[in-house]
Every structure is written in C-alpha cells, then in structure tokens.
Amino acid sequence: FEPKTPQYSTGDPTSFAYPTARSRWPVILTQIIDDAFKSVSACDDAEKRNEGKKIVEELVNLKYEVQHDRALTPIRDDGAPDVAIYNKELAALGNKVSWLNVPWLYTECYLFRRVNTSFSLSTHWKNYDVFARQKIKTFRSSRPAVIELAARYKDLVTQLRANKGKPVNEEAEKILFMEMCEICLWGNATDLSLLTNLSYEDIQKLQGSEARKAAEKNILVNDLGAAFDLLMAAKKAGGNERRVDIVLDNAGFELYVDLILAGYLLSTDLATQVVLHPKSMPWFVSDVVPADFAALLTAVASPRHFYETPTEEDQLQDKTPEKLTDTEVEELTFLFQEWAGFHGEGQLALRPNRVWTHPGSFWRLPHEAPDLVEDLKTSELVIFKGDLNYRKLVADASWDPTTPFTEAIGPLGPGSGINVLSLRTCKGDVVVGLKPGEDEKLRQTEDGGGDTGARKWAWNGKWAVCSFSKGR
Ligand code: F6P
Ligand code: MG
What we know:
Rossmann fold, globular, binds 6-O-phosphono-beta-D-fructofuranose
C-alpha cells in the first residue's frame, strides 16, 4: 500500500529525522518525564502515587533506549486494536531495528504510542495527558493574536449579517476565504514539537496579521483558489448538506484558528456542517485530543477567568496578569456564543477515530479505514492540517520535489472520491508540487541547506504549501 520511493530514515544524516531522533526526541521525552513526575509528586493517593512512580520509571527507560540506540520492542497489549498493526509493521522491519536507523514516520508514531502504553496499562493514569499543561500554557501565551482575531471575527460576522440578502461579490469572497485559510495555515507554524527551536516570542511574531501578510510570499504552492471555487460551486448548486472536514493537528492557537475558519465557513454558508477529526491519544506533543477542544471552549467562554487568574509561574514571579478590556471580553464571548450555537445545532461536530494515530501513511486509509473513507467521500472538502498529516498523505517518501501532489498522495488522489486540501507549514524533509529549480534555489538561501544534501529550508516552518487534489 505504499509508494516504491524510499521513506526518510533516522539513519540518514541529511534528513531532519537525524537530529530529530538524536536531539528532539530526548528533549520531548525529558518534558514528558518532568510533567509526569510533577503530577505524581503532587498526588495524595498513595496507591496512585506508587503507580505513577512506576510510569515515570518506564518513561526514563524509554528515553535511555532511544539515546542508546536500543532495538524497538513490541508495543505491549493494552487491549486496543492498533497494537497488532504496530507490531506487525515492526516485525516486517526486521527484529533488530534500532531507534537511530529506522523509517522516521513509523518510529515517531511508535514513540508516542509507546509513551501512551505506560499510561493506558495503568489503573489510575489511563487518561492522563502528559502534554495538557504545556498545551494550555502556550495557548495562554498567544493572547495578543487570540484577541486580535476575535475582534476581526466579530467585525466580519456582523458585516455579513448586515449584508444578508444583498448580492455577493465573488472576488471579494474569494480573497476573504484565502485569508481565512492562510490564518489557519500559519496557525500550524506554532506547534509545540518545534518549541525546542522557537521561543514564545518567535511564536507571537508569527501569529499577528502583519506577519501573515509578509509571509504570503512564503507559500510555495497556493491552491486555495481552487478549493474556494469548489465550495462556491456547491453553494450555488444549493444543496442543503455541504460538509467540510478538518483533520486537526495542534491544540491551542492552531485549534483556535481552525474553529475561526469553521465558523467563517458556516457563517458564509460555504459549508452547512464542519466535522473536526481529533486524535484519540496524546500525540506529537500538541495534537488535539477531545479534551483540548473542551478546554479551549471553556477558556473562551470565561476569558476573564482564563487570562486574569495568576498562573503558578505568575505567583512565583509575583506578577499579576494584565486585565482584559470590556470590549475584548465581549469579542471573545461573541466568538464563544457563535461556536456554542453551531455546536448545539450539530453544525460543528467532533468525530474521533483511532486510525489517525496509526503508524502508517494515508496511502493505507482505504484499506485500514474503509468506513471512514466512505464517509469522507460525502464531504465537499477534507482539509488536512499540518506537517505530520502532510507527511502521511505523501507517505513521507523522498519524492522528487516536482512530483505532482495528486500523484504523491496515491490512493487519495484523483478518482478517490475525496477532495483533499492540505494546509502545511514545512517542518520535515518531504515536499512535492514545486516548480522545477525551486528546491535548488531555496537550498541556496540562508540556512537553506546549501550543498550539504539536506533540504534544511523545509525544516523550520518558515515555508508553506496549500496543496489541493480534486478527487471527485
Ligand atoms: O519534524 C518536525 C515535526 O516535529 C515532525 O516530527 C512532525 O511531522 C511535525 O513536526 C509535527 O508538526 P505538526 O504539528 O505540524 O504536524
Ligand atoms: Mg502536531
């Protein structure tokens, strides 16, 4: 079910997989251990605390295994059906594969699944999210951009309502659609797995509207116009069930902008329903699990409580968070009411599926999740957010960068019955759909990789692609 082109590997010194396995995974594992340790230490229940200590020990061992390039061991059976999938693939890789010389995509998924088993096999920590603290903390720190967007959103929706019934200027609508998608795109530049490279300050810079305008030239492939034409045509055809799906990526700010896009699509009637697809376990540090959706809504529902209650850190530094103005509270409350309304009407729904945390690429979706694929065929447009989803769409294979996107996504391409739009800031090696010579030119830019053989320009989220494939 996979392309013949070889996949990126943690053993290849020119791949981003190489420093990822050697430096970034240990950092992520250290954060995991620290968080678990903190919760275990704060736990009053002796039985739960003892069990927690065992989990921390397991996680410390896991970090040791990664750093000392030990063999990958089978995932322990925690009763979930994906254990067999993980272990079958591990067996197929040969029984002696070790952390620092294995396919990147499989092993990174395996890493998070391994972490998960330490919790899922416990009695008291089954649903513990070891990244929850980090996710909510970063969302809090994106306050300026959150407020700016809430204001713009209220303005926009108010105008839309005032103009209801009047003829629409399609060109203007297209520009607005593209801008909304670009907001949603750049929200992906701020995932937490890259935080090991970016400071909070860098993140804030990435989130403001000025930064967004400046970044437009960094979108290497921009098929947003085609996606708009499709939704507009469906709207004109007048069907009363026109769904858009979003295969989510990160929680916090990215989920916030995903919901802004969802609200916009529903308010403009470019869609009548938006279905969101979260992960079913803590995943790649910051990916959305259902509880993150609830946490975000709670924050936006009571913005004063969320932003003005001093955090532990504030208390340590004797700092009082800045108060929100009445207007800011009103704008955030407006947003919450919009989302709650859509949610209540069933127009905005969350639909988990464990296939999103399987190790393989989406080339396997038709085989692994036929029901899901049938369901996605009934959607007007399926938006895949982020780097990992893109890597899975194109099977993380070392394609020539001029390969058409429609070819690199294999069975989900033309004829699949699924209209795919990928919004991805580049944080890996693979990229397709570029013009001839473009990759070479980017390699010659500062930190672009030069003649090292590494596509370094594609590692840090500075460049992006919005790639579309018409499947029906
Ligand atoms: O290498 C960068 C990385 O951490 C990859 O491991 C992963 O593909 C990705 O970023 C996560 O990013 P995103 O949240 O955009 O999927
Ligand atoms: Mg992610």
